[in-house]
Amino acid sequence: MPQEPLHLRGHHLLCAFGFRGLGYGREFVENMERIVKVFFAPEGVEIELLAGPDDICGACPRLQEEGCGQAADAEPRTRARDIAVLERLGLKEGERRTSIALRGLVARRFDPALLRRTCAGCGWLDKGYCEKGLEAFQQKLSRGDGAGVTTDKTATTAFSRKERRERKERQEPG
Prior knowledge:
By secondary structure, the protein is mainly alpha-helical. The chain has one domain (6-169). It contains seven helices and five strands; from the N terminus they run βααβββαβαααα. It has helices spanning 12-18, 26-39, 74-88, 99-109, 115-118, 129-142, 161-170; strands spanning 6-9, 46-50, 63-64, 67-68, 96-98. Strands 1-2-5 form a three-stranded mixed β-sheet. A two-stranded antiparallel sheet has the order 3-4. α1 (12-18) packs across α6 (129-142). The longest helix is centred in the middle third of the chain and has 15 residues, at 74-88.
């Protein structure tokens, strides 16, 4: 029997590269860690692409019935970001791809500097996590380093364990 696909919003394809073990609470962080680990697993997993709440959002304390409740206009802005990411990747909502294919597509079609435009308004953007994570993944690919794939949830980061621990203690941004 085939396994159910992982459901991810378009912009969460970018967030996976920058995840540093921080988030909106313990349940959210644990869920995100699990999903990022699966996303970067060498064997890959099927992903169904969304422009709305997904498996990551499911553990977010800000999720409301209509979607993201971080601000009054958060869901429409987030949906627009999802669609922009999918368009940049040449994909559409509802399509399915393997995580392996999606990782390669993001690495080829997203320059870390492009994240500034695509993710404008995101509270995590100024931290630089996503740019650094994507850059590190692209460098692994260019070295032929196992296609940049790892099951280590922290391997996409450029930070030391000490820096990750300090940032986790602060839970930036809240």
